[in-house]
Amino acid sequence: MTIFFKQDPVIQCVCRYDTFVIMYPDTYKELGFSINQKAHLELNGVDLTTIITNDRPVYVVNELLIRQHLHVYRQTFQKFYPKSTSIFYASKAFLNLGMANIVQQEAVGLDVCSEGELFIAKLAGISGQNILMHGNNKSRTELQAALDAKIYAIVIDSVSEFDLLESLSFTNRASVMLRVNPIIDVDTHPAMATGIYKSKFGLPLDDNRTTDLIMRMSKSTNVFFKGIHFHIGSQILNLKAYTEAIDAVIRYLSLLQKQGITIDTLDIGGGLGVDEQESTIKTIERFSKHVCSEIIERCRQYEVPLPKLAIEPGRSVVSQAGCTLYRIGHVKESDGLTFLAVHGGMSDNMRVALYQIKYNACVANKMNQAPIKNYKVVGNCCESGDILIENIFLPECKSGDVLVVFNTGAYSHSMVNQYNKHAMPGVVFMKNNDYVWTTKPQKLEDLVQYDTQLQ
User: Fold this and answer.
1) Is residue 294 a contact partner of residue 333, using CB atoms and an 8 Å limit?
2) 66-115 confidence digits (pLDDT tens)
């Protein structure tokens, strides 16, 4: 019996029971998917159709794959870089208490950019020395919370932010870094590019005020100036952008060195993209080798002492480790299109509306049926832009079927909202043949828990 996994005009995947015979075998083998005797899609041995029990979506996270990705980051940077390296998972990609527990257990750090993310990190037992805070508009409360937690470093984003920091209460000397903008072209969506001209993040390298602030930070008695931070954007697959950024920043470090300033640590941010046609593990390995060799070479070229290295991976850790389950509702023909409506949409995944992201999907309970019909997958929010997939070939679908949308582990749960007062989905972590709810599905009563009725 031939079982069809998924098919679109570009990729055709054909499977026989739990053995995938596809054009890109590494990807789906790594992700942990298989097909059982009922022709249902499984993840880590769990039938995904048994997870979704009502009409709300479910975020599914492969815990084993997340741990593997973090392990590969630690291993490869230790292999390719001769000095100390620190990995700080970028919590903005996806964070709940369960994810923070994984970070703590896997001996990596956490990159936070709000008081809320810092609160979760502390509640999960992550040491302050394993927490890095950045953000372009940190409040007095957030800065004081970071100082009280004695975190690894606060990444300063502006002169006025440093002024505010110095006005606060110090029980210990705080470590700080400065976010700089290398001003380079980045091959990604415009809304995901941060190291470009006129970005709201950081201070440009070609502005004398940047150097003036560094001089001031290095002389401050309240802080220890740990080093330089930069982050060029997100979903970056062309490593040339990292080459250009590293060259610009280390060339700048050589100028600082002439003024008597030598940094302790260089933080190159994150931003590594995910390619569905390649194993994320291979992407991480190639990225790690590339940036480490570039830093070593540029430090040699510009005669700069090799700094300690920090990196903030987010998307590449969790994106392919996540998928979203949707219950299919109504199917209708209109204007030559077949609309497939699911119970969910832009309230649980804003990324299509924001960034025009393209997703792949399959029908979890029909893995033995050929994808024969073209559908436009839409959500149930009252917006014309509430589209999950513009067009995709799937088996004949009907109400009650379960749609699995792949590669949603990053920036879906993070951007969840309650538009149209939809209850927020729960989060399931998958282990071997077992799962646990790490975020419970929201109840209708939760929608009004902070409301007060007017008399």
Assistant:
1) no
2) 999 999 999 999 999 999 999 999 999 999 999 999 999 999 999 999 99
Q: Under 8 Å CB-to-CB from 216, ≥6 apart: which residues?
A: 162
Name, in order, each residue with C-beta under 8 angstroms of 243's C-beta and a sequence gap of 6 or more: 290, 294
Decide: pTM greater than 0.85: yes
Higher pLDDT, 301 or 30: 301
DSSP codes of every residue in 22-80 = ESSHHHHHHHTEEE-TTS-EEETTEEGGGT--SSS-EEEEEHHHHHHHHHHHHHHHHHH
- Is the domain spanning 81-318 CATH 3.30.160.250? The answer is no
Q: Place domain 3-62+321-448 in its CATH homologous superfamily.
A: Lyase, Ornithine Decarboxylase; Chain A, domain 1 (2.40.37.10)
SS3 267: strand
Model confidence pLDDT, tens digit, residues 364-406? 999 999 999 999 999 999 988 899 999 999 999 999 999 999 9
- In the chain, pLDDT over 90 holds for what percent of residues? 72
Report residue 33 as tokens.
Answer: 């998917």
User: What residues have CB less than 8 Å from 311, skipping those under 6 apart?
Assistant: 73, 77, 85, 86, 87, 88, 267, 268, 269, 270, 291
Question: Which of helix, strand or coil describes residue 275?
Answer: coil
Across all residues in the chain, what is the average pLDDT? 88
Alpha-carbon distance of 29 to 92, in angstroms, equals 27
User: One fold for both 3-62+321-448 and 81-318?
Assistant: no
**Dihedral sign of CA atoms 261, 263, 269, 272 in order:** positive
| Whole-number Å distance between alpha carbons of 166 and 126 | 25
Q: Is residue 382 flagged as an active site residue?
A: yes
Candidate list 299, 381, 382, 397, residue with the active-site label: 382
Collapse the DSSP code of 325 into the 3-class scheme (helix H, G, I; strand E, B; otherwise coil) and give the result. Answer: strand
Return the residue matching tokens 């994106």.
Answer: 319
Domain ranges of the chain: 3-62+321-448, 81-318
| Angle value at C-alpha 434, between 329 and 1, nearest 5 degrees | 65
Pair 233, 194: CB distance under 8 Å:
yes
Give the residue among 105, 46, 61, 75 at the shortest CA–CA distance from 319: 61
